[in-house]
Amino acid sequence: MNAFSLEDYVDDRAADGRFSVHRSIFTDPDVFDLEMKHIFGRTWIFLGLASQVPHPHDYLSAWIGRQPVLVMRDGAGKLGAFYNTCRHRGALVCHTEKGNARVHVCHYHGWAYDSSGRNVDVKEKKHGAYTPAFDEDSHDLAPLAAFANYRGFLFGSAFADVPSIEEHLGGARKFLDLVVDQSPQGVELVPGNSVYTFRANWKLQIENCSDVYHLTTTHRSFLAINERRRSGESAYALRTVDSSSWRSPTLVRGSFTFPRGHAVVWGENPAPEIRPLYAQVDALRARVGEATTRWMLGSNNLTVYPNMQLANNAAMLMRVIRPLAVDRTEMRLYCVAPVGEPEHAREYRIRQFEDFYNATGMATPDDNVSYEDCQDGYAAAAVDWQQGYARGLACVEKGADRYARELSIQPDTSMSGHFSTGDETVFHSSYREWLRLMREGLARGEPDESRGARGARP
Length: 458
Prior knowledge:
The protein is an alpha+beta fold. It is built from 14 helices and 22 strands.
């Protein structure tokens, strides 16, 4: 870590009104390498939705840090997660994002594995002059040390000694429940997705999903267009958000932070009727109650640390974050929808998603430019500490406020107030978890993120 201690990267004196991070946390390649080992290589990582692999022999490829992963259903429909690497010489056994295959065959030497991860063929084994010791070893795909399914959200870890997925998610589970319970059959991904990279550090995306403060500057062109639509000046009548009411003093905005880095920003919705979910509002009220329906129709952006986000504003967006380098990040965007929603609501959802969230929409490109502006700005070496974590410190509450109690959750912190507060205390949880995982990893002295899957020498 060069000459720094970990505390030289995160200055957490919130009780004294101070919280900041050092800019080298976004630029130092050595820090990035340690993040891959001790954060992405050590905690629960989101892999995908069970609904992406609904049938026997369906598969989905994913990543845990730098490690390739293959999620599959076997012939009986049981889910499993394995390292996507041939036991022979290490080549990938699957090169596509998703599909259906009873058998995966390594392109290099032809070893084959079925959808349960079992090795079903060592090419020309009888002519290989192997010793008996070879048959004593397993040739199957190596399973992840830990694999969990929370209501259709799939997570994996390279280490077995992680807490249960329920403990890991904690109070953030409530906001996953608010997504899943929008339909009795759960949620699914609308076919298709966007994949792109931006030239900046992954933690900028972690922050931005919870950043209300940037909205009226970064996205001012979108807000202007949306206002023209609302007023009738534009012939295109699509309504994505009711931006004219965002600053209303009658509406409350807030945030919660949770242990293990998770966080959510939320807001009351002045125009729930423009949400695709509103087409089912009567059925929702009858099934989950008035209060839960109101939260479902409200705005909330959830970060499940360290690599998944759900933005529930215009339509519903799922982001999956894959850090590639200290200054390069891959993003995957998906439109999430309740199973069985009416056809007109699904079409409306897709139009809203395209308009605001898609890689070609009016919000995502704005954000990506801002991330890259930040990364370029970090080259100004004379400025070392950020001043972007102070808004809201004077009004944030420890523990649960009345809104948290309404949801029956116990967050680390709660904040509520006017839209223009632009709370930044919501960022603190991710850096506290960053510090915890990095400190524990360095104390263990583990050489790399693959140690958890290495096992005994054959």
